[in-house]
Amino acid sequence: MTKVLVVNKDSRPLMPTTPRKARKLLEEGRAKVYARRPFTIQLLYACRGYTQPVTLGIDSGYQTVGYSAVTEKEEVIGGEFKLLEGMSERITERRKYRRTRRNRLRHRKPRFDNRKRKDNWLAPSIQHKFDSHIKLVKRIKSRLPVTRVAVETAKFDIQRIKDSEIQGSQYQQGEQYAWKNVSSYVRHRDGYKCQNPNCKNKSKQKILQVHHLGFWKLPHDRSNKPANLLALCSKCHTPANHKKGKFLFGWEPKLKSFKAETFMTIVYRKLIETLGASETYGYITEADRESLGLPKTHNNDAFVIAGGTTQVRCQPLNLEQTRRNRRSLEQFYDAKYLDIRTGKKATGSTLFSGRRTRNKNLNDENLRAYRGQIVSIGRRSIRKSRYLYQQNDLVIFDGNVYRVRGMQNRGTRVALYADKNLTADVRKIQPYLWRKGICEQLTS
């Protein structure tokens, strides 16, 4: 059964109560709504404040975090917390815009010697995930009398998984050892051949380029790990083949990513010290979960980490992290032309000049000659103010609840997620639920 969390007049957490009792307290005016996600009430009268020991278990992770708080008799709250994705790509995009903006200045005083990194510095994307773990635990501890926190750290030797005989200085020699850069290693790994199985390039000396397999994803995966790179010839590595329906779209890397394990290797010690938590390991959790006959989920792992055995389980509360605001103020829309070869619409980036680098010998065919009648010109859309509705907010339109996809026409229309492209006048929209920060996952 789902419990309602309770805090006293001084915002000190108390033991949870049943929804029925919470509803009566609200109707009688003896309590008020304190917070949501999870739903919490605050008592408006003095009470004794008796509490029981509560253990909070955290199944830390790179994309999903499991959490469970248990007492001696029951599980009072539990579920999964999905972290915000795409932080690394957004930071890369922000750096690109920042460099372009600063390069417009005629003269800018050099400041490269002024930057210093603090001790225990983490990369911004890793720092964000670390802070999200801390934020979740602090939110639960502010509404439950947690006496102990236990965290699972997935610690194992990634390089020994790839090579069981690795030892000594070989740990400092990864799979790219003895290669000057990643691109040369990828070309050698792929046998200096184009990896397109249907390659029609009959040139004897093919120009090989390195392609990012995750470029089709949103946000783009531009990471330079070898598993995400592929050798393609210049005839196959074209903007047209990146489009939906072409062979490069949807191509997944063959090797498994170890981002999650690397993340835990970096932050697990700092996470335990910051939370003052006790540490447990994945193999212990797996053995205890299997002895209880529980399936593999982040919520069940957290329940076992917290010391759960035969306690009454509660209904999972699954949370997710959403963006509070899209900070990008400028959006570029490419021009569209009629391709005289097919008669279909094509973007300007598809029918491009063929020039990739300063070396003229590496140029491809000039496709601008196939640009026919222009359908729409390229334009820049600049947002001059922050709009009321943000992506993923829930609104009411024509008596139905929709999820917001974005704003259009300088904030006068709202784009909604529907079976077909649906937009509505902002004056005919009513807010239903603001979904910013940590919020409950949508079931449909």
Care to describe what's here?
- The structure is a single chain.
- The two termini are 22 Å apart.
- It is built from 8 helices and 23 strands.
- Strand 14 and strand 15 form a beta hairpin.
- It is globular and about 80 Å long.
- By secondary structure, it is of the alpha+beta class.
- Helix 3 crosses helix 6 (259-275) and helix 7 (282-292) packs across helix 8 (298-305).
Count of DSSP helices? 8
* Class per helix and strand makeup: alpha+beta
For the residues shown, what is the average pLDDT?
A: 85
Rg: 27 Å
Offer a few descriptive terms.
8 helices, single chain, alpha+beta, 444 residues
Could you write a compact summary of the structure shown?
The protein is 21% helix and 26% strand. With 444 residues, it is α+β, with helices and mostly antiparallel strands.
Fold blueprint:
Layout: E1 4-7, E2 13-17, H1 19-27, E3 31-35, E4 40-43, E5 54-59, E6 64-70, E7 75-82, H2 87-103, H3 124-141, E8 146-153, H4 158-162, H5 182-189, E9 208-212, E10 229-233, H6 259-275, E11 278-281, H7 282-292, H8 298-305, E12 319-322, E13 330-333, E14 336-339, E15 345-347, E16 371-376, E17 379-382, E18 394-397, E19 400-408, E20 413-416, E21 422-425, E22 430-433, E23 437-440
Parallel strand pairs: 1-4, 5-8, 7-12, 8-11
Antiparallel strand pairs: 1-2, 3-4, 5-6, 6-7, 9-10, 12-23, 13-17, 14-15, 14-16, 18-19, 18-22, 19-20, 20-21
